[in-house]
């Protein structure tokens, strides 16, 4: 049986093991979106992962969702990421930047931009504005619906950010198509009420995701591009109709692009993920827990998904308190937990201490 500790070839990268550090928002940068020396220390300490995927990085001010998150939309940010990627590579690691456009999951109080979406439909709930926590939330505003011409512009920002990521030293990028952000908003049936080429039918709803992947692959090479998806996931009030049919069509449309991988959150049934795995020609990363089950983060969960056809397994929360997660899995050592209050509060406590 395949082991988590076996190597794997991901495009041109030779991964020493099949453990992936999943992307996780940490909210440790300032309003300028510049990563810091602590950012470099945080990722460098986790370089024994087969692959690190960073926290979501906004590709534009308009795409920023949460406060105190990093960007890749100007040269100052590119320069600030270089010490991070250099530190990971010096420690023997490999790192992809996750490009995350928040779409309607945003607020003018975060970046001074009114959020946009496929349609003028607000999510039901509150979004983070001044800080993380109950006192930093406000009701989600109604987004401005993107015009047909503007949709193409938002496709292009993924490719632009990918070029900057390569310039910053990243080994590749992951498009965030999961967890209710812009790509999944287009896939959805409640956030996307469009009747043009980007809505209505399944072919219309998957079009934005496919075009974003195509543009990014054209910009930096398909072997450097992955995409994260959460079939049927309902984070940030997203609803999808006919999940099996929607994602079968999306996988069929993405497969010819030759992307490095698809990264799938286990938000649907195990059987659905197994069927999707069968239809995917390159690497398949399974994320067992996503944002649903906080108990999923063990070696056994990873081996379960390898046995069901996954090539790689990503871990999120388990990496917060265990930068040496691969070695702990290898030796059977206990895992440390990090207090939830330290996840997003800023500073080095719960981050690099």
Automatic annotation (TrEMBL):
The keyword Membrane does not apply. Pfam families: Oxidored_FMN. Keywords: Oxidoreductase. Its EC number is 1.-.-.-. SUPFAM superfamilies: FMN-linked oxidoreductases. The keyword Oxidoreductase applies. One of its GO terms (molecular function) is oxidoreductase activity. Residues 3-333 form the NADH:flavin oxidoreductase/NADH oxidase N-terminal domain. PANTHER family: NADH OXIDOREDUCTASE-RELATED (PTHR22893), NADPH DEHYDROGENASE 2-RELATED (PTHR22893:SF91). This is Alkene reductase. It comes from Streptomyces spectabilis.
